[in-house]
Amino acid sequence: MLTLLASMTFIIFRVIGESMGKIGADLYYWVLKEFMGVDLFSYVVVIGENIIAGVLGGVLAAWGCSFLYKYYNMTVMMIIPSLYTVLFVILGLMSIYSNAFSLSSVAQFISQFIGLYTFYIMLKGKFRSKFTSVVEDK
Predict the structure, then answer these.
(1) Distance CA 14, CA 57 (A)
(2) Rounded to an integer, what distance in angstroms lies between the CA atom of residue 88 and that of residue 73?
(3) Which among 111, 103, 95 has a CA at the least distance from the CA of 41?
(4) Cα distance between residue 103 and residue 84, in whole Å
(5) pLDDT per residue over 5-30, tens digit each?
(6) Which own/partner pairs from 73-77 qualify as long-range (CB within 8 Å, at least 24 positions apart)?
(7) What Å distances lie between residue 94 and 43, 77, 116, CA to CA?
(8) What is the pTM of this model?
(9) Are 84 and 119 in contact (CB under 8 A)?
(10) Strand locations in the chain (E)
(11) What are the pLDDT digits (tens) for 52-106?
């Protein structure tokens, strides 16, 4: 039960992480263009900033959820993030369908999968649950 409550914070940490990623990516591409003279194609900028936002959102969400509750069950911890991602993937598909296939909606669609994948990988690797070590000790 506590794991499910801890996974509810995924949404908050994910939104904060994606916002930080978008701001950081915008700043990065601005520095590339203004100071280094590198002018990238618009699709590289749009897709790149959404990838950076998804990765940072997933990392921050994994850190936040595992920081709040260290003895989580991985299966239960993935329920809310999976539902969140499925909801936004459906909304992304509806946006792609209604907006005549815009590049930004496709990039946001990709960002949702990258965020969930990063969240899962970070929980499995870097922010491991202490729940498994308790089970193995007995």
Answers:
(1) 4
(2) 24
(3) 103
(4) 22
(5) 888 899 999 999 999 999 999 999 99
(6) 73/3, 73/129, 73/131, 74/123, 74/124, 74/129, 76/3, 76/4, 76/7, 77/3, 77/6, 77/7, 77/123, 77/129
(7) 21, 27, 20
(8) 0.83
(9) no
(10) none
(11) 999 999 999 999 988 888 888 888 889 999 999 999 888 878 877 877 777 888 8
99: amino acid identity, one letter: N
Q: Alpha-carbon distance 101 to 99, whole Å?
A: 6
pLDDT in tens, 118-135: 999 998 887 666 665 544
DSSP 130: S
DSSP symbols for 5-40: HHHTTHHHHHHHHHHHHHHHHHHHHHHHHHTS----
What is the C-alpha R_g of the chain?
Answer: 17
Amino acid at 6: A
CA distance 108 to 47: 8
Which tokens hold the place of 11?
């949404």
CA-to-CA dists, residue 65 to 24, 61, 62, 85, angstroms: 22, 6, 5, 16
Contact 74/129 with Cβ under 8 angstroms?
Answer: yes
